[in-house]
Structure formats: C-alpha cells, structure tokens
C-alpha cells in the first residue's frame, strides 16, 4: 500500500502478559515480521515486562512503547512511573489518555496534555487517544467531543512536538466489543481530526501527523481500514495478544 505517511501499528497489551508470556509473544513476532520495513511496529507491554521485552527486541525492528506515564518527573509520587524510568528501557512511545484511563482513572484532557508535554521533554513520542462514546455519537456530539479532546489533550504542544505525536482515534463503543467502526466512519472521523489539527497548528503539519484507528481491529478488517486516506495505522488491543493475529494485521495492512 503506498501511502503519504508511513503506517504505524501498535499493540496495546493492556493489563495482560506475564514476563514469560511477553517474551514468547515478541519471540513469535520477531520470527513472523522479519524484514517488514513498510510499517512502524510498536509493542506496548505492561511496565513489569518492559525490561525483558526491551532486551528481546534489541536485534529487531520492533519498537517499544509504554501504556501510561506520570506527568511528573522523578520524585515523591508513590506508585507512579516517570518518563525517565521508561527511557532506561529504550521506550520510544507512550500511550496517553486511553479511554480506559479516561474512564477508570478519571484522566482529564488537561492531565493528558501535561503528560504529553512531559513525554516530549524526555524525547518520548506520545500516542494520544481520543474518541466518543456510543451515547455521544448517537446524540450527534461526535465532532464536539473530538474537538474538545484534541484541543485539550494537545494543549501547549509546539508544532515540532505535534509533528512527533501520534493521534489515535478510538471510538469507545468499538473498543473490545468486536464492533469495529466501518472504514467510512473511521475515515470521516480521521478527516475531521486532521482538519482540527490544521486549525490548531497548520495544514502542512496536519498532513504529516499520523492518525491511528483503534477499536476491534483484526486481520479481516485491517486492510480496508488502512486503505482509507486519513487512516495511518492502528492501535490494537485484543488482537495484539496473539502472534498470528497481530502479525496478520500488519501483513494485511502492507
Ligand atoms: P481492542 O482495543 O482492539 O481490543 O478493541 C483497542 C484499544 O483499546 O486500544
């Protein structure tokens, strides 16, 4: 597939995989995905597996991501993980503002923006997630919600930082439900988000920013989604936990 922006496909393992299971998964992915250079491939294990996975992928093209980080630097924040901790394991990406954290940890756009700025200060690339709930979509509020989330969660980023930020559109109703947005629904939301980026920054930058789709991505729907002009990759949950399904998503996207 020849696209203007390089595809980036990330596996969000969520609160799954022991260290041994994580190592088995990346071992399998390395075998399946050798020589795949057309796509940036990122794995986001739980914190407890970062050290071992980091070592295991050193000799591969897989890149490491984390699922969250603190907005603070090192200090008295019990139970938190700083960007500096992630850097020790050569983490390059960090998922921020996932809808599960927005929902369960009550993360606000303001907090997510602070985390995004802290990530950039440590030269980590944030994957900032936005997306509407079913009630919001059915109430005709999708655009309003997305606009508020992008404006709030990306507040204070410089153009240069935005250029190194990945945006992930993840409609909440499609996450873990098996109910994927149709390719047309994804394209519509992505085009809207790109338009917002153009308004907040500039059109040239908006054209460069990669926007991932997330929500029940699987081998059977990956290609159609990735074919959409404004869909530049995927953030994959459930299907990223298995060597076969994650590698098939990547292969089917090329
Ligand atoms: P899912 O999760 O692929 O299991 O729907 C996606 C995500 O939450 O990032």
Tell me what the structure shows:
The chain is α/β, with parallel strands linked by helices. The protein is built from twelve helices and eight strands. Helix 11 links the parallel strand 7 and strand 8 (233-236). It is globular and about 45 Å long. The structure holds 2-phosphoglycolic acid. 2-phosphoglycolic acid is lined by residues 12, 170, 175-176, 214-217, 235-239. 2-phosphoglycolic acid (PGA) is lined by residues 12, 170, 175-176, 214-217, 235-239.
- Gyration radius, in Å: 17 Å
Distinct bound molecules: 2-phosphoglycolic acid
Number of strands: 8
C-alpha end-to-end distance: 5 Å
Shape: globular
Task: Spell out the helices and strands N to C.
Answer: EHEHEHEHHEHHHEHHEHEH
Major β-sheet strand ordering? 1-2-3-4-5-6-7-8
Number of helices: 12
Give the percentage of residues in beta strands.
5-15%
Assign a percent range to the helix content.
40-55%
Query: Biggest sheet, in brief?
Result: 8 strands, parallel, barrel
Mean pLDDT: 97
Structural class: alpha/beta
List low-pLDDT spans: none
Features:
single chain; globular; binds 2-phosphoglycolic acid
Summarize the structure.
This protein is α/β, with parallel strands linked by helices. Helix content is 45%, strand content 15%.
Give the helices and strands, then pairings.
Layout: E1 7-12, H1 19-32, E2 39-44, H2 47-56, E3 63-66, H3 83-88, E4 93-96, H4 99-104, H5 109-121, E5 125-130, H6 134-138, H7 142-153, H8 159-163, E6 166-169, H9 183-200, H10 203-208, E7 211-214, H11 219-226, E8 233-236, H12 243-253
Parallel strand pairs: 1-2, 1-8, 2-3, 3-4, 4-5, 5-6, 6-7, 7-8
Helix pairs in contact: 1-2, 1-12, 5-7, 7-9, 11-12
Bound molecules: 2-phosphoglycolic acid (PGA).
């Amino acid at each position: 597939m020849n696209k203007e922006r390089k595809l980036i496909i990330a596996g969000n393992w969520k609160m799954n995989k022991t260290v041994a299971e994580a190592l088995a998964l990346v071992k399998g992915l390395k075998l399946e995905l050798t020589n795949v250079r057309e796509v940036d491939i990122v794995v986001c294990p739980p914190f407890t597996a970062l050290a071992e996975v980091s070592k295991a992928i050193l000799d591969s093209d897989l890149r490491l991501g984390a699922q969250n980080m603190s907005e603070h630097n090192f200090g008295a924040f019990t139970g938190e993980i700083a960007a500096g901790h992630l850097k020790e394991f050569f983490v390059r990406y960090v998922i921020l503002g996932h809808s599960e954290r927005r929902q369960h940890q009550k993360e606000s756009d303001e907090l997510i923006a602070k985390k995004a700025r802290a990530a950039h200060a440590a030269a980590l690339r944030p994957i900032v997630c936005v997306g509407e709930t079913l009630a919001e979509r059915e109430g005709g509020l999708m655009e309003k919600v997305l606009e508020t989330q992008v404006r709030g969660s990306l507040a204070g980023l410089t153009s240069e930082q935005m250029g190194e930020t990945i945006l992930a559109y993840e409609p909440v109703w499609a996450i873990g439900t098996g109910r994927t947005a149709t390719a047309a629904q994804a394209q519509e939301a992505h085009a809207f988000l790109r338009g917002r980026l153009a308004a907040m920054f500039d059109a040239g930058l908006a054209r460069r920013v990669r926007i991932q789709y997330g929500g029940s991505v699987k081998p059977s729907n990956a290609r159609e989604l990735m074919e959409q002009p404004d869909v530049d990759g995927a953030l994959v949950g459930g299907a990223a936990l298995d060597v076969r399904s994650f590698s098939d998503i990547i292969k089917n996207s090329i």
